[in-house]
TrEMBL record:
Domain of life: Bacteria
Entry keyword set: ATP-binding, Nucleotide-binding, Transport
One Pfam family here: ABC_tran
GO molecular function annotation: ATP binding; ATP hydrolysis activity
Positions of the ABC transporter domain: 4-236
Keyword flag Nucleotide-binding: yes
Protein name per Swiss-Prot or TrEMBL: ABC transporter ATP-binding protein
Organism of derivation: Geobacter hydrogenophilus
Matching PROSITE patterns: ABC_TRANSPORTER_1, ABC_TRANSPORTER_2
InterPro entries named among the record's database cross-references: AAA+_ATPase, ABC_transporter-like_ATP-bd, ABC_transporter-like_CS, ABC_transporter_ATP-bind, P-loop_NTPase
């Protein structure tokens, strides 16, 4: 199971409507990438799915039950790393494991935490405080924590945005591996990115959001067979056609803004 239903969701901060009329059915085991211009409400939608905020109107349900609070059925990776700064990096992962798998012996939890930290390329950070790590390392530790609890739903907000190209490619592969690992019971993933190529590499479907207020502009199937090998994928006609379509859809927002009489300037010239 682990189907997510988003029904006519509206969300406002005071008088400002951030999301409006969001409808989306996410099937169990789907990998959804959310693309959209900055400020269109992608993170806000993820916060609603995580149960950190509630829709102003409409509903969000997981397998028919309304999402009202965070839960261990949903692993989250947000942009702000969200590690407890007073605990070592290893303890941060162990704490999540203790919540997800209570009663497991402590040494096993520590071994699992260390294994997941190593999986994301963090071999020697178990005893270090998050403050002693770089931003990219903290992000990887937060990813290790989300992966370790092995929740059936993963909500990820630009998780690889701050990483170098090689680490990013490794973690994309690791994520796909974890997603596919239990055949027939894939995780349901909702993944926010600004990178169109990353979205096509990862997603079963790409949801493009628009601005003012945040809404779903289009939903695109990515029917390119897996495994998708980067070197081959990027030159294929299917990839190029979908990439161009998605970029066109994303730019449609900019063009709408221009139609409203606003001007985008580059190098001092109006276009
Ligand atoms: N706590 C808050 N109070 C008031 N407004 C907020 C708050 N958090 C976000 N917003 C507003 O909600 C809108 C959507 O923000 P959100 O972070 O969801 O967008 P986003 O699509 O994820 O952007 P980005 O791609 O830049 O991360 C923005 O206009 C933002 O200013």
């Amino acid at each position: 199971m682990h189907t997510i239903s988003i029904n006519n969701v509206q969300f406002s901060y005071g008088a400002q409507t951030i999301l409006d009329g969001i409808d989306l059915e996410v099937l169990a085991g789907e990998f959804i990438c959310l693309l959209g211009p900055s400020g269109c409400g992608k993170s806000t939608l993820l916060r609603l799915l995580a149960g950190l905020a509630k829709p102003t109107l409409g509903s969000i349900a997981l397998d028919g039950a309304p999402i009202t609070a965070p839960g261990l059925d949903r692993g989250v990776v947000f942009q702000d790393y969200s590690l407890f700064p007073w605990m070592t990096t290893g303890q941060n992962v162990v704490l999540a494991l203790e919540q997800a798998f209570p009663g497991k012996p402590k040494n096993e939890q520590r071994e699992t935490a260390q294994a997941y930290l190593e999986m994301v390329g963090l071999d020697n950070v178990f005893h270090k405080l998050p403050g002693a790590l770089s931003g990219g390392m903290r992000q990887r530790a937060a990813i290790a924590r989300a992966f370790a609890i092995n929740s059936p739903v993963l909500l990820m907000d630009e998780p690889f945005g701050a990483l170098d190209a090689i680490t990013r490619a490794r973690l994309q592969d690791l994520l796909l591996q974890l997603w596919q690992q239990n055949k027939g019971e894939r995780k349901t993933v909702i993944f926010v990115t600004h990178d169109v190529e990353e979205a096509i590499l990862l997603a079963s479907r790409v949801v493009v959001m628009g601005l003012n207020p945040g809404s779903v502009r289009g939903v695109f199937d990515v029917s390119i067979p897996r495994p998708r090998v980067r070197q081959e994928l990027y030159g294929t006609p299917e990839f190029i056609a979908l990439r161009d379509r998605l970029i066109g859809e994303l730019h449609a927002d900019v063009l709408d803004e221009l139609d409203e009489g606003r001007t985008v300037r580059t190098a001092g010239e109006g276009i």
